[in-house]
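Q: Could you fold this chain for me?
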Amino acid sequence: MKKLLFFAACALGLSACNMTGEQQQDAVQQERDSLQRIINEKDMELDDILGVFNEVQEGIRRINEAEGRVTIAEGNPESASSKDVIRDNMDFIKQAMQQNRDLIAQLQEKLKNSSIKNTKMQKTIESLQAQIDAQSARIQELEASLAEKDALIEAQGDAIAGLSNDVVSLTEENKQKTEKVQQQDKELNSAWFVFGTKSELKEQKILTSGDVLKSGDFNKDYFTKVDIRYDKDIKFYSKSAQLLSSHPSGTYQLAKDKQGQYELHITDPQKFWSVSKYLVVLVK
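A: Sure. Below is the predicted structure, expressed as structure tokens.
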């Protein structure tokens, strides 16, 4: 710029030697106007370049901030809010980086076509390009890390789903086993009793020719089912009662209640029912 003004001043001085005073004054004014236009044009070029330069710097700053937010959210990738933060900021970063690349290309083109030849400015643009390249490399690493974590989370989700299915299956299997054990336990602890008159017992083929339960087709539905662990007292609602089935002595008591009616108190259930799980009592 200084050299340009110097040569213009020299040219003005030489031409002024052959002019009248008024002509010289007009020539000087024209030259000043021409120089001012050149200066204004260069100022506009410089302002334009600096404007783009500032946009690139602002873009780099905003990308750095977004990268920081992603890094923080990355620490809790399973959170729904963190996933939204990561997705939104990664989208912004990609858009901002593409915009910066476009702006750098504009700067290069403007500087190439500009009358301003400034080595420092070219180096500054190269430095901006290097910063953008470094950011791009970091973002690629960040994307790779996020993809790896997503794959890990997905694998863990599949594993958890598999374990959940296994747990459900095992739970159902255990439930069935428990129910089976409970049913078996209930059957093992089940017994049946019946009381009735001689004619009633004969009618149900429970008593045949003086023998008890000798007929294989006696009416089992006539008996009442009990749980030997809990049902230890049986009322016969009769003032006469006689045990016809075999049960070890000392394992029960046959006594009368306040109304004089007989009832059975089983004192040792396991031994009482060890000989037969069917209790037959003759009443009148």
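A (continued): The chain has a mean pLDDT of 82.
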